[in-house]
Design goal:
By secondary structure, the chain is of the alpha+beta class. It is about 25% helix and about 25% strand. A hairpin with a 2-residue loop joins strand 9 and strand 10. The protein is globular. The structure holds flavin-adenine dinucleotide.
C-alpha cells in the first residue's frame, strides 16, 4: 500500500480493504481495483479519516450504491469511502426526517410507507443511496429529490460539519453543487397520508418501470440526459443502435438509453458503446448528448 495511505489509516477504526475490485460496488458490475475501500465506523472515524486525507494529500472518492457510476478498468487511486454504517433515519417531527447518506432508497421508501408518509414514492425504483440521490438530484420526469430536501449536511474537506440549504445546493437536472467533502445526510419534508395511498403510488410507478426498463441485466440507468424537447433513448433508437453490442456490453433492446452488461462486459466495452451512440446521434441528428452516468477512474486496457 502507498505509504501516505498506510499512515493515514494507522488509527482508522473501520474496515479497510486493500486492492479491492470495484465492480462489486457498482450496479453495472464493472470497474478496476481501488487502492483501498474504507468503511468508517462512525462520524468520529470519518472526521479523523478526512484529517488524514488532507494532511497526506491523498485523493478520495465517496461511493454510494454505485448505481450511477461507470468505473474504468484501471480502477481508482487513493481512498474510496463507503458509508455503509451511516444508515440512521431519524424522525424530527410528524412529517420531517433526517436521513443519513448510507440509507438505501428502497429502505427509506419502506420506512415512509410504514410511517404513512408521502412525498418520496418517485424514488421507488431508483437503486441508489440517499447521499448519491442528493448529489445527483435523482428523480423522474416532473419530480426530483430537491423537491423534498430542505437541507443537506456535509463534512467538508476542511473537517467542518455544515448544513447547506436547498437554495445553496444549486440543484438542477441530475446535478447539484456542494463544497468538496462527504455528504452526511439530508432533511426531508414529507406529508402524512394513508398507507394505502402511498402503496398505490409506488405500485403504479414500479409497474411502469418493469414494463419499460431492462432490469434483468446489470446497468446504470439512463446513460444520457434527455436533451430539451427530446428523449435520448428515442434518438439512439432512431440512429439504428438498439441492440448494438461491443464485447459484453449491449445497447438495450428494451430501452436504448440503457446499456446492459451481458455478463462479461468491461468498462472499456461500455465506454466505447457510449462514444459510438454519442457520435451517431451528433452526426445524424445534430444533437450533442450529455452524460447522466458518471465515468470515473483510470484507463485500463480498452479492448
Ligand atoms: C436500474 C436503474 C434505474 C435508475 N433510474 C433512475 C431514475 O429514474 N432517476 C435517476 O435520477 N437516476 C436513476 N438511476 C441512476 C442512479 O440510481 C441515481 O443517480 C442514484 O441517485 C445514484 O445514487 P448512488 O448512491 O448509487 O450514487 P453513486 O452512483 O455511488 O454516486 C453518484 C455520485 O454521487 C456521489 N456521492 C455518493 N454518495 C455521496 C456522499 N455521501 N457524499 C458525497 N458524494 C456522494 C459520488 O461521488 C458520485 O459522484 C438509475 C440507475 C439504475 C441502475
Amino acid at each position: 500500500m502507498n505509504h501516505a495511505i498506510e499512515l493515514l489509516l494507522k488509527d482508522f477504526k473501520g474496515k479497510a480493504l486493500q486492492n479491492e475490485p470495484l465492480g462489486k460496488y457498482t450496479s453495472l458490475k464493472v470497474g478496476g481495483i481501488a487502492d483501498v475501500v474504507v468503511f468508517p465506523l462512525n462520524l468520529t472515524d470519518l472526521i479523523q479519516l478526512m484529517e488524514g486525507i488532507r494532511k497526506h494529500k491523498v485523493p478520495f472518492f465517496v461511493i454510494g450504491a454505485g448505481s450511477n457510476l461507470i468505473i474504468r478498468d484501471g480502477g481508482m487511486r487513493g481512498i474510496v469511502i463507503k458509508l455503509s454504517h451511516f444508515t440512521r433515519i431519524e424522525k424530527i417531527d410528524a412529517a420531517t426526517l433526517f436521513v443519513e447518506s448510507g440509507v438505501f432508497l428502497p429502505r427509506l421508501l419502506k420506512y415512509t410507507l410504514e410511517a404513512s408518509l408521502t412525498g418520496l414514492e418517485f424514488l421507488c425504483s431508483i437503486p441508489g443511496n440517499v447521499g448519491g440521490a442528493i448529489k445527483m438530484n435523482a428523480g423522474i420526469p416532473g419530480r426530483e429529490i430537491s423537491d423534498v430536501v430542505e437541507s443537506v449536511r456535509l463534512l467538508t474537506y476542511q473537517g467542518e460539519i455544515v448544513d447547506i440549504g436547498k437554495k445553496e445546493a444549486c440543484f438542477g437536472y441530475r446535478r447539484s453543487k456542494f463544497p468538496k467533502g462527504v455528504l452526511l445526510g439530508g432533511v426531508f419534508n414529507l406529508q402524512q397520508a394513508s398507507r394505502h395511498e402511498v402503496q398505490e403510488k409506488i405500485a403504479v410507478l414500479l409497474k411502469k418501470r418493469r414494463e419499460t426498463q431492462p432490469l434483468s441485466h446489470p446497468n446504470v440507468g439512463s446513460i444520457f440526459k434527455n436533451p430539451p424537447g427530446h428523449y435520448a433513448g428515442r434518438l439512439i433508437e432512431e440512429v439504428g443502435l438498439k441492440g448494438f453490442q461491443i464485447g459484453g456490453a449491449q445497447i438495450s433492446e428494451k430501452h436504448a438509453n440503457f446499456i446492459i452488461n451481458k455478463g462479461s462486459a468491461t468498462a472499456g466495452d461500455i465506454i466505447q458503446l457510449i462514444k459510438k451512440a454519442g457520435r451517431e446521434v451528433e452526426d445524424k441528428k445534430g444533437l450533442v448528448l450529455e452524460l447522466e452516468a458518471k465515468i470515473i477512474g483510470e484507463n485500463g486496457s480498452d479492448r
